[in-house]
Structures are given as structure tokens and as C-alpha cells.
Amino acid sequence: MSHAATNQAATFESLCQTFRDAAKLSTTADTLEWDERTGMPRGGAEYRAEQVAYLRGLVHDMQTSPRVGEQLQTLQDWDAAKDPHSDIGATLKWLASDYHRQCKLPSELVQRTASCSVRGQGVWDAARKADDYKLFQPVLNEMLALKRETGERLQTESQTVYEALLDEFEPGAKAAALTKTFADLRADLVELIREISDSPRQVDTSLITQTFDKASQQKFSHLIAEAIGFDFERGRLDETSHPFCTTLGPSDCRILTRYESNFLPTSIFGTLHEAGHGLYEQGMREDWFGLPPGSYASLGIHESQSRLWENLVGRTLAFWEHFTPTLKEHFPTTLGDATVEQLHRCFNAVQPSLIRVEADEATYNLHIIVRFELEQALIGGDLSTDDLPVAWSDAYEEVIGVRPPSAADGVLQDVHWSAGLIGYFPTYTLGNLAAAQLYDAAKDELGDLDTMVRRGEFSPLHQWLKKHVHQQGRTRTADELITEATGQPLSAAPLIRSLRNRYGQVYDLND
Amino acid sequence: MSHAATNQAATFESLCQTFRDAAKLSTTADTLEWDERTGMPRGGAEYRAEQVAYLRGLVHDMQTSPRVGEQLQTLQDWDAAKDPHSDIGATLKWLASDYHRQCKLPSELVQRTASCSVRGQGVWDAARKADDYKLFQPVLNEMLALKRETGERLQTESQTVYEALLDEFEPGAKAAALTKTFADLRADLVELIREISDSPRQVDTSLITQTFDKASQQKFSHLIAEAIGFDFERGRLDETSHPFCTTLGPSDCRILTRYESNFLPTSIFGTLHEAGHGLYEQGMREDWFGLPPGSYASLGIHESQSRLWENLVGRTLAFWEHFTPTLKEHFPTTLGDATVEQLHRCFNAVQPSLIRVEADEATYNLHIIVRFELEQALIGGDLSTDDLPVAWSDAYEEVIGVRPPSAADGVLQDVHWSAGLIGYFPTYTLGNLAAAQLYDAAKDELGDLDTMVRRGEFSPLHQWLKKHVHQQGRTRTADELITEATGQPLSAAPLIRSLRNRYGQVYDLND
């Protein structure tokens, strides 16, 4: 190595150490938030918010220090970083882009947004409870203005303001391409749902709406998470009101689920979903923890891992051929007489409904499409918040076929916009698409996945995902990762095929 | 205010803000440790240690920055700080003494001690399991050398090396005074224990060694903690293997207890003990959180609050007159026929034994006296670690009347020395003494506490402690606090009176 290269290697190591140290603090803040959402006493809320804000501030200061800027500058022409898909190259590419992103945002804008987000979520919560959109509108206006300013400051020449916002969650995503993909998807989904609702064979879900003991639900949830490969030596499963997955260290991943006494799928599919996120987190390379090669590629890719296990694996006949006997052991009185087919049908019931988080797999993406169109119009100035509630209801009626009777069950149902998460919703659908496409590619390579699942052999699929997704970290963009792993750019076709196949069984649809 | 005073007020505010910010980080580290001891997955240990060390390092840097030194210098002659018992005066007094203490210790010594402590606890654990003192001896030698160097660097002209170490836990404590107090206590305890063992009336504890359902123990523990005043809006009770109390914010105090299926007192008195610590933490002034007026006076005073509720309240006949019916409701099959007197006797059984943490209230302080004498001899160089095991066994035989059959049940039973906690043990006995003396003073002022306790009225005592102890924070030394609250300097007499009174009932002793 030349003298310059030796220096650059040392500079790189020092830069990485800063981000590793910052990760120690940000995972610490995540731990505080995990605790807040699992059992912190109510009195602790105010101080907890101060602690988290202080830690996040320290992290921000570390990541945007002038020294980091100088080090990135020094490393700009480093030979070892030339390949953006190498670990070093990807690290420098993302650290530089994050750094420049942060530097474009004045800290008073960041602080105003953070403060509006905390306040906004409180106002949203109150407005939803009071079913009063007017209460929410002023803070929504404020947040939209802040996010518009943020997008304008961040946008590159080739980006719209909305794309600049989207970029934070799904780096490199293009609104035009998304619009096209979502339009294809929408047409196919609307047709599929029409066929399902026209089918003479409908699903009776009374089996899964009985009363289910929480302790048994907890045991079964633990069992299926472990079966698909979630490592309880390096993670745990807890209860919360809004399920999530959070990573508190390279070998400490926490997944959280919810138990409904009268609706069994909530805990089962909630657990599979979060465990899917957990497998991704546990499958990353520990030696790159806190740096891009040890991070997720995008939120869409993260969601693909949860949806794959929840839906592509968890809702199949093969999965329930394997798990029905165990499930019946856990609920002998309520499910003692249930058959595999009955359970499989119950877990794949389709019913157009008002609330996204309760939606079935077929209609779910339509909920996202509504939001994707509305939030673009809001940010672009094509839709005023005065007209939003009616636009929302019209869109639901047109796209999903149901009209919300109230703001609480309509435009006020999601926390995202109040929290400043604009450009986030599309990642849910991107995840669904990627899940189906990755599953198909795995099947092409591994052979008869159904038979493996029927035998409870989840490891081949898990290892395939680990190799093609988890261990890649952020050395690829989402698009690159999908194309390399599946041989195709992302498309709606695999998801539609998968849904047609599964719902075909359940609703006796014609091919 | 003069211009200089205005400046000094601003400097003081800035200094306090630094320590408030440091408290945000140190309570964050405490949260990480709480999580580690309540359910962190095993895989998380290594990274968790890195996180905690990093946070503790940041705190140390903040508290010992040159700017803090300059600010303390600027405020040295500030009129508002003249009275060391005022909030401002006490703040500056303790911050300055901590600062100078820290500055006397080179950071390489601090780091070597921290590293030896982590390693030492691991070695201790292995040595105890293998019942092999020789395994432990080298790291004990290393730790003693480090602590001796620490003490030598810290000691003032009027202090011995041991006193300099003691000072960290019990500021201002004098070894000579302790030796005198402990000698008085020892003589009285030995006599009391002789009378108890000679008594024809012995205690049958079979009632409390049956099998007790954990869920019922948890409910009863929660109930008694709440009854004595622990605020569950501002705290919670969890399970752990080594009970403790930790404060994660001004309104977030966590207490932890242990449930033994075959020994009921473990959870009951463990909970009362930790809840007593918790009442102290919850009773402090929130606006001084993270600063001396919002901190505990000393470890001895902290222990006095736990021991007071555990023993002076929790082991009385009056307490069980109140709680026996509720206890029987929780354990109808095992305790359905138990009487108040039977339970009271069981909870006050005395039996000289080998293990400190399992010792009854009468013999407990003798275990401490053994450690106090041995650790002084070790630090002073009067006892070599070669001779320690025999010295330990001889002391147990002489003081408590039992000889350990093994190192594991003898000299290897406590983690403290391996962790560098030398000078810590005496605070346990100081707490016992202070508890009895404070209880007497409260009774003098409040009247018939027994009747209140019998009625389940714990608030008068709680409020008295809040006023005389909790809200004082660290504006008084332990000695000053006890003298002001009770009208007397600390002595062994109240504890001995209290034990004689209670054991007199249980063992029919003559007055």
C-alpha cells in the first residue's frame, strides 16, 4: 500500500468508528423507546422524551461533524472505494449521501419538524378519538409545509419534491415508475377482488373469532417464530399495542406482537410478520453493525422480508398442513375439530374494509395506492387539506368500494402524516411486490418449497434470503438487490400470480 | 443582584445543566442495565457492555471537563453558596468534591479498575462455582492493589486509606467511629442471639416453606408495595435474580424482586425492601433531579429506607394483623389456617447461618462486622490474601458461631470485593442502625405507629420520612441528617431495643 492509501485506510477506520459509536447511542435510544412501548410507567414519559431527544441530538452531531465532512472529502478519490457495491465503496457512498442530505437541512428545520411530529401525533390521537378532522387540519398543514420545505431543500435536479421525501425511506425510488407499477397492480387487484366477491364460495370465519386464551397464543407465537428461524438467544418476543421490530444491538433483536382474545390471526400473522423483519436484522453481518453493509437496503426491502414470511409462507396450505396439529394442541376446545382447509380458508378471507391495518392481503395494497396518490397531491399542492376528507372518501369508494362513515375510520386512521412520514406508505406495497418476487426466485433455485414448508423445513428458504438479501446489507440499492436476486427488475406480476393461486384455492376461482 | 452575582447565577445554571444532561445519559445507562437484568437475550451481553461503557465514559467526560473546573472555580466565593446546607451550597459542595475526587484519579487507573472489576466478577463467579479460592486470589490481589492506590490518591490528611474508599459510599464516615459503634452492636447482638438460642420456645417455619404459586406471590408483592406508598404511575415492579432498585428518571423508579416457590419471605420482604428504596427515590425533589439536592444522602441512608419498611414495619405484629387476611386470600390452600401470630413468628425466626444474604435480622449485622474487619485488614496490609480464607472462617466461628465448610459458602460468597466495592459493606449496617433510630423518632412525633400500621395507614410514616429524609436530598451528610431528624447522632441503641422488643415477643425473652 502506498503511504496515501495507508492514510486513507486509517481515515476510513476512524470514520467508521465514529459511526459505530453513534450506533451505540442510537441503539440506546431505541432501547429507551422499546421500554417505553413495553411497560414504562406513565409518569416516565416526559423525561424519557428528553433522554431520547438528547441522545438523537448527540448522534446527529456526531454524524454531521465537520470532521466527518473532512474525512469524507479525503476519501473521495480512494481507490478502495471505487466500486460502490463493495463494502467500503457502499459505506462511503451512503455515509456521504446521508452527510450531504443532513447538511442541506438547517437544524432549526429539523428541530421544528421533530417538534411538530411529537405535537402532531398528540393532536392526531385526540382528533381521531374525537372523530374531528378540523382539529387535525392545522397541524397537518404545518407538517405539509415543513415537509415541502424539506423536500425542496433535498431535491436533486432529477427529483420531484415528493421523490426527495420518498428517497429517505426508499433510496432511488422514482414516483413515475411507482405510479406505473401501482397502476398495473391496481387493475389486477380490482379484477381479482371482483372475482372473489362474485364467487359462490364465501369464507366463514367464525372458527377464528372465538375466544382464545392469551397464554396459549403467546406460546404458539413463540413456537412459530422459532420454527422459521428467529434466534431467541439473540432476540426476544414481547407484547405491545402497536407491533414492531427493533434492533438494540448486533445480537439483540426485539420483536413485538399483539394478542386479540377474539381474533386469532392478529397474533399469528403479526408474529410471523415481525419475525420476518427479525430474520433480516439477525441475518445481517455483525462486523458491519451500524454501517451501511450491516444495514437494511430500504424500507421496502425490509417489508418484503416480513411479508414473505407472513403471507407467502404463513398463509399457504403447506404451512397449515405443518402447523395445524400443533395449533390444535394449543387450543383444544376451540379448534379441536378444525381441519387444515378450514383454517387455511379462514386465514385467507377477503373482505373490502375501511381500515388499512386490518385489511386482508388482496385489498391491502389498494389502501396504500389511495394514500400514495393523495400524499403526492398534498405535497404537490394539487389537493388542499380542506378537500382532503372528501377526496379520501371518494378514493376509498372508487378504489376499494367502501365509503368511510367518519373521519376516524377514514382520513384520520393513520398516524404517519402527523409524524411527518410522507413518502413512507409506498414502501409497504413495494415490500409486498418484492416478497412475492423473491419467493418465486427462491423456489426456482431451491425447488419444491411447498414440500419443505409442509415438513417444517424453513432453513433452506431462510438461508437463501440470508445470502441474497440479509448479508447484502446496503451494498445494493433496492432495485439492484431485487434484480440481482431474482434476475428481473421489480414488477407486480409475481404478487398477482401468488394471490391468484392462493385465492383460487380458497374461492374456487377460474384460472 | 450585582453584576458579578448575575454572572455567577448564570454560571451556576450552566453548570447544573451539564449535570442534568449527564444525568440523562447515566439514567439511560441504568435503563440498559435494568433491561440486561430483566430479560435481555443472552446474545446481547457483549454489545450491551460496550454501550454502557461508552455512555459512562461520556458522563465522566462531561463531569470532569475543564469547563466544569473553571465554573466551580468561578463560583467558589459566591455568596448564594455560602450555606452548605442550602440547595445551591450543597450542590456546589458536592459537585466540587466529586470533581476534585475524579481529578485526583488518573484515567488509566479508573480504566484499569473498571476492567479489573468486569474481569474480577467473572473470575469470582467461576471460582465460587468451582469452590476454588486459589482461582480468585490473583484477581483479588490485583483489585486490592488498585483500590489501595485509589485510596492513597484520594486520602486527605485526616483520612486513612480505607476511609478514603469508604467515603465514596458513605461520605464523611470515620473508621474509628464505625469500629466503636460496631463493637457495641456486636456485643449486644451476640448476647441477644445467645438468649434466643437458649430460649425453650423455638420457631417452626414449616408454614412458610410450603409451595407458593408465583402468580399469587406477584399479586401480593404488588399489593404491599402499593399499600406502603410506592407509586405505580411512577414506577414498576419486575422480577430478577438479584433484587435491586434503580431510578431511570424523576418519575420512573424500577424495583425488582425474586420469587422463591418454597420460601415465601423472599418475595415479601424483598419487595418491601426494594419498595423502601423506591419510596426514597420517588420522594426526592424532581426539580433537582440529577443534582445533589435531588440525590440520596449516602448509601447508608438509602439502606435505612429499605430496612425500615422491610423490618421495622414489615416484620411487626401490627403489620401482620393488617395483612394476614389478605395474605390468606392469596394462598388459601397453604395458609388458610395460619394465624397472625404464627406468621409473625415465622417471619422473625433467628438461625445463625453461613450466608449473609439469607441471614435473619439479628445475625445479619454480624456478617457485616466480619467483612468490615477483614477488608480493613486487607487494605491496611495487616492481612494477606494467603491467610484470608482461614481468617474468614475463624471470624465466622468466633462472631457467628458457625464455620464455613467450603470457600464457596465462606470467603467466596459475595461479589463485592471482586467488583472493587471495598468500603461498601458497612453501609448495610449503618442502614440498619439508621432505620431503627429514624423509626423511633417518627414514633415520638407521630404517636402510636403500631395502631396506624394495624389499620393499614402507612401515609403518616411515609410523609414523615419524605419530609425528614427524602426531600433533604444531599443537602446534609448522613450524620447531619440523622442528627437533625432524630435529635441524636447515630447509635446502636435503637436497633438493639427494636430487636429485643420484637424477638422478646417471638422467643419469650426476659426484659
Automatic annotation (TrEMBL), chains A, B:
Keywords: Carboxypeptidase, Hydrolase, Metal-binding, Metalloprotease, Protease. Its EC number is 3.4.17.19. GO terms for molecular function: carboxypeptidase activity. Pfam families: Peptidase_M32 (PF02074). It catalyses: Release of a C-terminal amino acid with broad specificity, except for -Pro. Broad specificity carboxypetidase that releases amino acids sequentially from the C-terminus, including neutral, aromatic, polar and basic residues. Belongs to the peptidase M32 family. This is Metal-dependent carboxypeptidase. It comes from Rhodopirellula halodulae. The lineage of its organism: Bacteria, Pseudomonadati, Planctomycetota, Planctomycetia, Pirellulales.
